[in-house]
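Retro notes (design track)

What went well: tokenization of the new backbones is finally stable.
What didn't: we kept losing track of which sequence belonged to which structure.
Fix going forward: every design gets posted as structure first, then sequence, in one message. First example under the new rule, 140 residues:
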């Protein structure tokens, strides 16, 4: 069984995304957010796409000076490695907000939402997502 927790980086999908981000750079933020957008157009966001999208959105917030207090310092340091590239991306904050909102929108369209609601733990994850959206909103 893989990692599973309420924090943005407390799961395998986000961990895999972070490893790719460390190796490939800021393009992984664009890629993860594009994957969410594509999944939305197809009608369903799979869990790994959602987890990578949330991690990418956290990367955006961190690179724009609004890191989460819940994210480990080493992870934060890895995220800001590419902050200049991330900050130069067109509409990246708006894209991150759109991705997060899509991920939490509807359990029929998002495996992330479905799994957390089915586990009876939606109240555990929503403050973390709300905090991410608030931080992204401040840097918009």
């Amino acid at each position: 069984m893989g990692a599973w927790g309420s924090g943005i980086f407390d799961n395998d999908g986000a961990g895999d995304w972070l490893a790719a981000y460390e190796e490939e750079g800021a393009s992984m933020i664009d890629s993860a957010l594009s994957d969410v957008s594509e999944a939305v157009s197809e009608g369903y966001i799979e869990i790994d796409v959602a987890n990578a999208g949330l991690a990418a959105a956290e990367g955006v917030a961190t690179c724009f000076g609004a890191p989460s207090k819940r994210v480990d310092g080493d992870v934060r340091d890895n995220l800001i490695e590419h902050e200049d590239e991330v900050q130069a991306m067109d509409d990246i904050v708006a894209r991150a907000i759109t991705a997060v909102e899509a991920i939490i929108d509807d359990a029929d369209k998002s495996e992330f939402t479905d799994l957390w609601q089915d586990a009876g733990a939606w109240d555990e994850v929503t403050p973390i997502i709300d905090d991410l959206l608030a931080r992204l909103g401040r840097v918009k």
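Added context from the reviewer: The chain has a mean pLDDT of 94.
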